[in-house]
């Protein structure tokens, strides 16, 4: 009898659990994406990869419902399609040459400002997701 009662409690709580995970995940993604963008800009400065400031100012965040494409970018590169999943966030740099700065060429060594930012911020994102789950009562 008690096992049926336990199952019913779990089943009855599933919408709350589902909604709490969704809410915590979306909050974490927005905050994490913003932090990755800010850190990657600091990394660009740290790598001394600034000439005109165009690449530094071309960073933006894009989600399924938000397109932060910067309209003031000189030499814009390829514009990626928006994410189709609400649990996806893109942190991009619109300057066409940003990929060459990041990955390097035969003539210059890569300065992976964005990958470094992801690596630096990932532990924070994991911790923040756990905090957001707790704030949702999960």
Feature tags:
single chain; 138 residues; mainly alpha; two-stranded antiparallel sheet; 4 helices; 57% helix; disordered N terminus
Structure description:
- With 138 residues, the protein is mostly helical.
- It is built from four helices and two strands; from the N terminus they run ααββαα.
- Helix 1 packs antiparallel against helix 4.
- The longest helix has 45 residues, at 2-46.
- The chain starts with a helix and ends with a helix.
Task: Please compute the radius of gyration using only Cα atoms.
Answer: 20 Å
Please, what is the average pLDDT? Answer: 86
What's the arrangement of strands in the largest beta sheet? Answer: 1-2
Percent helix: 55-70%
H/E topology pattern: HHEEHH
Class by helix and strand content? mainly alpha
DSSP E strands, number = 2
- Label the overall shape: elongated
Main sheet properties: 2 strands, antiparallel
User: What is the distance, rounded to the nearest whole angstrom, between the alpha carbons of the first and last residues?
Assistant: 26 Å
Proportion of β residues? 5-15%
Which blocks of ≥5 consecutive residues have pLDDT under 50? 1-5
Q: Number of DSSP helices? A: 4
């Amino acid at each position: 009898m008690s096992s049926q009662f336990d199952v019913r409690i779990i089943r009855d709580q599933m919408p709350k659990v589902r909604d709490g995970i969704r809410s915590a995940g979306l909050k974490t993604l927005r905050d994490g994406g913003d932090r990755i963008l800010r850190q990657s800009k600091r990394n660009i400065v740290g790598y001394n990869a600034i000439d005109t400031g165009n690449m530094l100012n071309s960073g933006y965040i894009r989600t399924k419902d938000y397109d932060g494409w910067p309209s003031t970018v000189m030499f814009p590169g390829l514009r990626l399609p928006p994410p189709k999943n609400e649990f996806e966030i893109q942190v991009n740099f619109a300057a066409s040459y940003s990929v060459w700065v990041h990955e390097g060429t035969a003539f210059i060594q890569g300065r992976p400002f964005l990958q470094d930012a992801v690596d630096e911020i990932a532990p924070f994102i994991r911790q923040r997701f756990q905090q957001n789950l707790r704030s949702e009562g999960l």
